[in-house]
Amino acid sequence: MTKLARNLFITFLSIILILSFLFTGCAQTPLQPEPAASSTPQESPPAAADNGTDNVTKPKPQRIEGVNLPPMPYPDKGNPKLNTFLNGLIKAEKQGEAESFARQRNVKLVDGKVRVEVEAMPGQLDAAANATAALGTVEIISLTLNAISAVVPIMNLTALAEEKSIRFIRQPVSPTTLAPDK
Predict the structure, then answer these.
(1) What tens digit of pLDDT does each residue of 32-91 get?
(2) What proportion of the chain, given as a percentage, has pLDDT over 90?
(3) Burial, 164: exposed, middle or buried (Cβ in 10 Å; 0-12, 13-18, 19+)?
(4) Which of 25, 95, 121, 162 lies at 20 to 30 Å from 143 by C-alpha?
(5) For residues 182 and 179, what is the distance between their CA atoms, to the nearest angstrom?
């Protein structure tokens, strides 16, 4: 047998072996050992209502005996329509530290107001511009970007984010150069 024929034969046998292993169920090992048979009858699980879905049971989390941990609290991430900086700025404003928070991040605040870019929901640019004008000062409305550039008081950011016509509020993108500094 030539070397090529032998390699093809070994590859063919390997594929058959792998396929037979997968289709016979040998690859499916139980995660938990089967419970020992007991002489007491066990209750069968209640039948689920037939609502057109498969009866899939969710695995219960395993508990380690002797370890009793309190539930983990989720961190307060703020409003999902505001970027991380703006959520942090609102939190700092409530603590009276908005100026230092903004200064650490090289953002200029003017009289408790911050420059933002408001992205409108599709087809709702006019409604978003009106909502922004009611809570701040609109500077530029971009029809092509479906966005509004505005200066908004920090404490009005949450109310602005709750408007249905607004998709997201973030800091304006600053232009950067690709040329190295000399």
Answers:
(1) 555 555 555 555 555 544 444 455 566 666 666 777 767 666 567 788 999 999 999 999
(2) 42
(3) exposed
(4) 162
(5) 9
What 3-state DSSP class applies to 117? strand
Task: Locate 173 and state its tokens.
Answer: 């993108």
What are the φ and ψ backbone dihedral angles of 98, each rounded to 5 degrees? -65, -40
Q: Which residue has the tokens 């600053």?
A: 174
- Contacts with 172 (C-beta within 8 Å, 6 or more apart), sequence order: 115, 116, 117, 149
- Residue 23 parent element (H or E): helix 3-23
User: What does each C-alpha distance from 111 to 49, 93, 153 come to in angstroms?
Assistant: 61, 12, 8
Q: How far apart are the first and last CA of the chain?
A: 69
CB 93 within 8 A of CB 106: no
Residue 116 and residue 169 in contact, taking contact as beta carbons nearer than 8 Å: yes
The size of the chain, in residues, is: 182
The answer regarding whether domain 84-170 maps to CATH 3.30.70.80 reads yes
pLDDT at 125: 92
